[in-house]
Amino acid sequence: MTPPDAQTDEKVAAYRAEIRAVGRNERLAGFGLVLLGAILVWGATRAGGLSEIVQMAGYAALAAGWALMLAAIFLRTRYHRRRMAELDGGAQ
Question: How many structural domains comprise the chain?
Fold first, then answer.
């Protein structure tokens, strides 16, 4: 990892792309689960006798999706702090 250098626009863009890649899989999986959960909760009214199970599965998917998205935010923040600590000479 090279330390980010805010001297040029190209370097800033490269660092933004680098930090955007951190936790990308978790964010995408979380977003997918949130969408699936919303669809399941919405579709529970049309599920007939399985409506309670479908609704609970929807809420579980929503909870898991948001948990993944929060985990991705945590990973990205931790990565950014480590990168900034490299610039400060290792002090945190």
Answer: 1
CA distance 22 to 8: 22
Q: 71-91 burial by CB neighbour count: b if 16+ within 10 A, else e?
A: ebeeebeebeeebeeeeeeee
* Residue 45 lies inside a defined structural domain of this protein: yes
Residue 16: closest CA among 73, 69, 80: 80
pLDDT in the model for residue 92: 52
79, 34 Cβ separation under 8 angstroms: no
Q: Does 29 reside within a domain?
A: yes
Confidence category of residue 91, pLDDT binned at 50, 70, 90 = low
Domain that holds residue 83: 20-87
pTM over 0.85: no
Where b means 16+ CB within 10 Å and e means fewer, 20-41 reads eebbeebbebbeebbebbeebb
